[in-house]
Here is the input.
Amino acid sequence: MSGEPQIRNVRPDELEQAWRVHVASSSDLAMRRGRPGRRADEPVSTDARAGLASDPDGYFCAVEEGRIRGMVSALVRGRVWYLSMFFVLPGDQGRGLGRALLERALAYGEARGVEVRCVWASLDPRAQARYVMAGMAPRWPIYRLEGDAAAVARLTARVGLDPRGRELPCNPVAAEKLTAEVFGDGRADDLAHRRSDGGAAVAIERGGEITAFAYRRGERIGPAAGRDETAFLQAVAAAAAGAGGGGSVTLRVPGACASLLEGLVACGFRIGDLSVFLASRPFGRPDLYLPSGPILF
Here is the structure.
């Protein structure tokens, strides 16, 4: 290799190539831990496209000899900076590309005036060290849970529906308001993306007011938010009951959502991959928020 790598913004027509870096690096980590790798031709996630559309100045790549060898994406939502993706090709790791990319992503947040930095991270110790040195501390684990139809039915029976409330389709404005209460920003664009990408939301109403909502898209549940724990659990259960055509559903549950996590495991949901959430300081009501996934949170 010759010359210094160039660190610059990812262009829209380069997202496919940047995504291949993500897939290759993720597969390498999985196989080193004894798990199956990902398909090399895995389609670009619609969440990744949405992130590039919302934060084009937060997407960076490391280019050398005409090839993207590393990529990072940072999203700003209100006062929160979120590290959405951060990957370097396996053969190019240890060359300083990751450090240079992360510096640019952090600078993007500083220029936007953020107050909090956070990341949903794998258990890779090298990545963990970078995040700790960037001022982020481990806050709680995130569990991937999967439940079949029987587990969903047990969850629905366990949670029940508050006799003072009822389920109904979710008004987008109400979802934005609840998201702002628990996250600190309404995230209107992210919720609009969820709806345009085939997501549907169910809401819990009590006393004429929406107190919780949960999105479902195929077998995936999230995001979800609630004003109180009871309504939050009811919304997640209602979304799970309406998802997957009677098959399995999956959720990514932060350890901060202790009651939801306990309820899911008690009803037979199986724990899968484990990751960890790091943040420069606590923010919002993490016990009342279920993320959509690792790319948009």
User: Anything to note?
Assistant: The first helix runs from residue 15 to 32. The domain at 6-114 is CATH 3.40.630.30 (Aminopeptidase). The two ends are 36 Å apart (CA to CA). The longest strand covers residues 67-77.
